[in-house]
Amino acid sequence: MTKRQIWWLLIIPCVLVAAAMIASLLGVFQFSFRRFIPGSLSAGGFTLDNFYGMARPIYLLVILDTLLISFLTAVFCLILSYPVAYALVRTTKEWLRTLLVILAITPLFTGEIVRTYAWMLVLGTQGFINSALLSIGLIDTPLQFMYTRFGVVVALVHFSMPVMIILLATAIGHVNRDCEKAAANLGAPPLSVFWRVTVPLTMPGIIAGTVVIFAWTMSAFATPQLIGGGKVLMISNLVYLQGLSSFNFPLAAMLSLIAFIAAIGSLGAIQPIVARLERRVALQ
Amino acid sequence: MQAMTLQKTSFWVLVAIILAFLTLPALVVIMTSFNPTEILRFPPQGFSLRWYARAFTYSDFQNAFYSGLIVTVVASTIASVVGVAAAYIIDRYQFTGRRLLEFILVSPLIVPRFTTGFGFLLIGAQIGLAGSYPLVILTHIVLVLPFVMRSVYVSLANIDPALERAAANLGASPINVLMRITVPLLTPGIVGGWIVASILSFTEFTASLYVTNYSTQTLPVAMYTYVREYTDPTIAAISALLIVSTTVGMFVVDRFLGLKRILAIETH
Lengths: 284, 268
Prior knowledge:
The complex is a heterodimer. By secondary structure, chain A is mainly alpha-helical. Chain A has helices at residues 3-32, 49-53, 57-90, 94-105, 112-123, 128-135, 149-173, 177-185, 190-201, 203-218, 222-227, 235-245, 249-283. By secondary structure, chain B is mainly α. Chain B has a single domain, classed as MetI-like fold.
């Protein structure tokens, strides 16, 4: 077998999988522009109604809410993840690093349902936080965390932190420590070294990570579904409601398409910014 | 000097608080799973294993566990084969459409899960495969493939090209070099990729909700249905088992393959 024949042998499965992915996206695209026939799973002819339907206040509000929740999640996720990523890369003790990696990364692999259920136990009216606050007498009546935007954001921040920590740790790992040492030798106190050298040098990672989490959060489903409980709606919950409860496939497809475009668009938009920052950082 | 120690101490206190936030939900789940009554109380009044017994005997969970296992094993194994093929040709060959192929194969990382799942539901319905194992497995292959590819890329980059050249110079045919030199050297990457893929496939929820039906539903889907119907701590028992086994799995992967290497984190 020549190298060429090996290539043919290997590319066939890759193309098949790629074709399946494309077919699923084309399915969504195609259904977005077809007419909904109530009571039937098949869709009618071409229409732009689903697209214009998005201008209705209920959908606009959900889309805006999705963007707001994703933005808040990304920002808080960044603030909480940076110290952990920094500690993980810079600690000199190997056992501590292993412990940090395991603690930080394991939640990523327990799945959406387990983690969301865990947060229901923590945030519920009779949950962990309320029981603790009641028993030490800080509050008299339970606080409402479930079915609020706050509860959804807290759980989503927790959900996204492992990914953010990995991305930030990669960025911090690439910082040339000579720059920090030079600043320190010239008399900069540790905090200014951090804010004026380390943070700017990791800015490409910070921006890329924040936008990745923003895009990622837009596709969260279980968390807003169970913790939002219908009171906090994201696009994913509307897709589920329209697609699997009302069987309005065309409208669900249009909502999925919008979420897809928002995710791809936000990631595509930052590419030039990150590339420019990376060049600037490389010069230093 | 004293100011610096203070800063250092406060930094580590901050890190400890954040780690407590990361770990708290898991600890609460484990605590709840031993709760003796249906009504949740913190701290639990007693100790009981009844929810573990219920989790193991509830037939929906038993069935979902086996369907999930079938989907996970088949999907991650196929994804590993395809992932090696994809990473190899994208890394070692130059051809038109190479970047495009790579972009499509890693796109499930950025396309919302519900878009992918809903898309597979739509095409599955059109070809009469809605809710069937082939459709669920295909969806899972697409979703976990990027993780296998990433793991194999890291291993490919670590192979000394001299080894492949030496084998070729000694008369090994290209397929022999691939099968007897390259693939064995990629083993850590393939095994690491397979483990990550199977954990992700076993716990995948959003897309599975769209492509499965009652007879092919995976464990997370069955758990979701249960949470919506009952409030007892059975789910806490399953969750506790999943959390403990994943943590142990992570330690094993770290011990033998190095998590930092798989995740491509550089340290100083």
